[in-house]
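User: I'm putting together a small comparison set for a docking exercise, and I want a reference complex before I start. The sequence is below, and the ligand is FE3-S4 cluster. Could you produce the 3D structure with the ligand included, as structure tokens?
Assistant: Of course. I'll restate your input first, then give the structure tokens for the complex.
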Amino acid sequence: MFLTREEEKMLAGEEGRAAQKAMQILVALGKIYGAEKMVKVSSVQVSGVSYKNLGDAGLEFLDELAVDGRARVKTTLNPAGMSLTDWKSQGIGAAFAEKQLKVIDAYRRLGVEISCTCTPYLAGNTPGFGQHIAWGESSAVAYANSVIGARTNREGGPSALAASLTGRTPLYGLHLEENRVPTLAVDVEVPLRSPEDFSAMGYFVGRAATDGVPLFRGVRQAGVEELKTLSAALASSGGVAMYHVEGLTPESKLKPEGHEAIAFTPKELQEARALLDGDGSPDFVAVGCPHCSLSELETLARLLRGKKVSREFWVCCSREVKRRSDDAGYSRWIEASGAKFATDTCMVVAPVEELGYRVVATNSAKACHYLRNAGLRTRFMRLEECVAEATRSS
Ligand code: F3S
């Protein structure tokens, strides 16, 4: 694999131990995937932040790197296992909180922005079309490749951090034009009436596409909210890291490879919803997977205004979007209802199953997928239905 003089210096340890370790990781990855060289990246999004997933081994790894490692490009962080300030009101135990705060401290010493969101593109980490980046959060990866037209593989926690500490990533996979062409056409033959319909469709198609590149045909309109939840669902049931929506996403003119096509009709939409929606009366309601946009918070404020929630209700979003919601006056109505902002975290990476909840109502296919894997039951509902469920008298 060709390395520039600067990259060789890093590999030789001339720029510190952390940069050396990072370059070793990237060279090993490049060799596995047949990369001919490295490419410079302009931004990094690091996943693997919750202590629930990292454990002590992950914390030790971060502490070692933080001795002399520093981010060389803008680097933001995925959600943590709890709110960094309001963890007590979330029911998180002190032992977990102590470890989680140590993880955050290590990232801070590494020069990573403590943004704690899976929608960095709504909170200041906004790459441009054609830029090479190294992002780890799977929903954000699919969004960045597909909607923005930036170029990233689906990085693991260590490889994304390695990209941050060197400013490089191996040039392979979705960094190359030839791997961005559609591999499967999806003819959408049902009107998609809400972001939740996009989420259900993503869940269904992700299973069929596995790690391919689906091209959706017949979708007339989709905004940020529809595309972010579609991205998350495609990446959770399958390994989709890029898709196209004909006429809407920037590279949707790339010619499909082969002619494989599937139809998504009312029958498949119903099937998808049935896969996600189980039974039971929810004792926990959570929205914001991926983290809410300001427009979603505006809708929630309108729906919750003058009402009281009768069960635990989390609204997951970034601190940055929450700040804008405070300024716009939306947060006041949301909090007055008794709903809680879950900034820095989400219903999946927080240890919800250990907090005693059994049935979760949510409007996200991705959240349903992972909560079920954690042993919880899920109800898949539209945002309006989630609010109705949370405010229903028990
Ligand atoms: Fe984000 Fe958590 Fe969903 S990280 S995409 S809200 S599982």
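The chain has a mean pLDDT of 96. The pocket of FE3-S4 cluster is lined by residues 78-79, 118, 139, 232, 289-291, 316, 346, 348-349, 366-367, 370 (CB under 6 Å).
User: Thanks, that's exactly what I needed.
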